[in-house]
Amino acid sequence: MADTPSNIVFWIGVFGTALTTAINNVSGYQFLLVASGILSGILIHDVILMGIISYTRKFVNHTFTKWTSMIAGFLLIGFSLYFAFLFIGEVKHML
C-alpha cells in the first residue's frame, strides 16, 4: 500500500504543499528540519496505517468490504457533483 503510485502521488502533493508553505517561513537548517519532520510523519502514518489494516483484515469479511466500497464510491460521486456545482457557479459568476 505504501508504494502504490496513487499513494506516492498523494504524499508528494502533501509534501510539496507543506514545503511551499514552510519555505516562506523558515530558512537554512530549519527548512531541512521541517522537511525531515514531514517525511518522518508520512512514514509513521504509512507504517501505522499498514499495521491497522493488516491487524483488522482478519475481522473483516467480503460483504463488509463490498458495502464499504460502495458507500465510499457514492460519497465520492456526491463530492464530485458538489464540487462540479461550485465550479459551474464560479464560472457563471466570472462571466
**Radius of gyration using CA atoms only:** 19 Å
Overall geometry comes to: flat
Overall average pLDDT:
85
Percent range of helical residues: over 70%
Biggest sheet character: none
User: Which assembly state applies to the chains in this document?
Assistant: single chain
Distance between the termini: 44 Å
Taken as a percent bin, the fraction of beta residues is: under 5%
Spans of at least 5 consecutive residues with low confidence: none
Number of helical segments with 4 or more residues:
3
Total strands: the figure is 0
Order of secondary-structure elements:
HHH
The class by helix and strand makeup works out as mainly alpha
Q: How would you describe the overall organization of this protein?
A:
Helices cover 84% and strands 0% of the residues. The protein has three helices and no strands. It has helices at residues 5-23, 29-56, 62-94. It is flat. The mean pLDDT is 85.
